[in-house]
Amino acid sequence: MRVPFLDLNAQTAEVRIQLDEAIAEILDNSAFVLGKWGKRLEETLATAHGVKHGIAVNSGTDALKIALQACNIGPGDEVITTAFTFVASVEVIAQLGAKPVFVDIDPATFNIDVEKIEAAITSRTKAIMPIHLFGQLSDIRAIMKIANAHGLTVIEDAAQSLLSHNDEKYAGAFGKAAGISFYVTKNLGAAGDGGLILTNDDEVRERSLSLRIHGMGKERYYYDDLGYTSRMAEIQAAVLCEKWERLADWNRRRVVIANTYIKELEGTPVITPVTTEGNNHTWHQFTVRTDQRDDLMNYLRSKEVDCSIFYPVPLHLHEPYRAYGAGNGSLPVTELVSKQVLSLPVHPHLSDDQVRFAAEQVKEFCAQATATR
Ligand SMILES: Cc1ncc(COP(=O)(O)O)c(C=O)c1O
Predict the structure, then answer these.
(1) pLDDT, tens only, 34-83
(2) Which of 94, 163, 181, 284 has the fewest CB atoms nearer than 10 Å to its CB?
(3) Ligand 1 centroid vs 85 CA: distance in angstroms?
């Protein structure tokens, strides 16, 4: 039985009629950017996250970069974050001339280890950027407490955590600003790239609106800032609005699948992901840990169960980011976890049989591995 990591065709099929209609309307009206779909997306998602403003942009990367810039992060500033994330989180800090300062992660959640943040604060620290990885909030309450005590800005990388929340608020509603990604593989994916800035801050909103069109001020062709071409295409906004209608169901299905894996894999040596108390996990990824990661991956692939490694090499060990880290051994948990992680298929179009089959293969691998020890 084949168990694919993603099934974008099945996702599109659910909304195909609506997408065809919406795209035809956009083509008929030649209303390609900054139109009603973008506005609808911004308002819908801001409301859903309990945040005042949404600003739609071209990608999650742009959302983070514009959010950081709108919060005045620039040359000479230090931004505390993690190295166990997608490259964009750190890339944008460096591109703005600021310095990413890496703090190790909590192995149970893959998110920043809040106990280690204060030791990383210096006189140059301007912000903390927690990455809410795989669909779960970081320990954001503790982060906000530290940030407030030291006068630091918090910008949330919520790229993978649309609609994730704790018992208080949603991702993006804690810090000064947040970035969300709509890359095709995300829980809510565009037909290409897309992103959104969330903020309660009126000034950050105004500046972000300007930055997404080259830093243009209120008057046309007069510029206040060094900006970007980052208007979201109306076609992408329409795709996202139509898929949004299905998202709650899709996320519910992810929870069922994740819980099935957790139950099925109980008692095996494979470590299943932990959801912190009070957190609502949206299961962008279901990531297990094992010291036999590569063998498990090869075994699953031989059984046609797709799986992926997020992320095989932490960012402080990649060439462009070496200058910011203290090298191999400086982030022991991050480095160990990178060698252990394997993400299993958790997309909402998996059948119960496929989920059970995938879990069975993991169990079979564990049984064989134990037998040959
Ligand atoms: C944690 C994280 N940050 C930032 C990004 C950047 O988003 P995008 O790919 O939409 O530019 C991603 C997306 O892949 C991500 O997973």
Answers:
(1) 999 999 999 999 999 999 999 999 999 999 999 999 999 999 999 999 99
(2) 94
(3) 9
Ligand 1 centroid, distance to 261 Cα (angstroms)? 26
Looking at the 3D structure of the chain, how many domains does it have? 2
CA–centroid distance, 29 to ligand 1, in Å, is: 31
Burial class (CB in 10 A: 0-12, 13-18, 19+), 357: middle
Instruction: Give yes or no: residues 191 and 283 share one domain.
Output: no
Q: Which atom of ligand 1 is nearest to the CA of 132?
A: 1
Q: What is the dihedral of CA 233, 239, 244, 246, to 10 degrees?
A: -170
Residues lining ligand 1, Cβ inside 6 A: 59-61, 64, 85-86, 88-89, 131, 157, 159-160, 181, 183, 193, 195
Residue 1 lies in a domain: no
* This model's pTM is above 0.85: yes
**CATH code, domain with 300:** 3.90.1150.10
Q: Is residue 3 part of a domain?
A: no
Measure 182 CA to ligand 1 centroid, in angstroms: 8
pLDDT digits (tens, 9 = 90+) for 256-265: 999 999 999 9
Do residues 144 and 122 share a domain? yes
Domain extent at residue 316: 246-371
pLDDT of residue 67: 98
Q: What's the confidence (pLDDT) of residue 372?
A: 76
Q: Which of 197, 214, 241 is the last residue of a domain?
A: 241
Q: What is the number of the ligand 1 atom nearest to the C-alpha of 183?
A: 10
Question: Closest ligand 1 atom, CA of 131?
Answer: 1
Best substitution site from 160, 182, 197 to test ligand 1's pocket, by max atoms within 8 Å of Cβ? Answer: 160
Q: 24 CA to middle of ligand 1, Å?
A: 29
Structure-token pair, residue 168: 């208080």
Same domain for 162 and 199: yes
Residue 208: give its domain's CATH number.
Answer: 3.40.640.10
pLDDT at position 240 is 98
62: Cβ contacts below 8 Å, ≥ 6 apart: 195, 212, 228, 230
Cβ proximity of 141 and 170 under 8 Å? no
CA–centroid distance, 195 to ligand 1, in Å, is: 9
Contacts of 181 (CB under 8 A, 6+ apart): 59, 60, 61, 63, 88, 159, 160, 194, 195
